Amino acid sequence: MNANEAIAAAENRKVHLKNQLNLKKCSSPITPQATDNKVSEPTLITSSTPQSKEFKLAELKRLYNSDLISKEIYDERQKLILDSPSQ
Description:
The protein is an alpha+beta fold.
């Protein structure tokens, strides 16, 4: 599976899980936000909760370290994240 397929599969899973939560009338899941290899207090995930650059970069690094994306994709996405306006 290449990086684009992995990303598409992850997006499909996310949509499926969101649909299941809505179907079963569940509240949104809570997930910890990782920073500096430490887990902070859990943050409620909602569609209006923006992800920080730090979180996006950590997730990108995790994907790269897990060999799910190439160095080229990593560098490209890293530049996009760093060049994007702060949220």
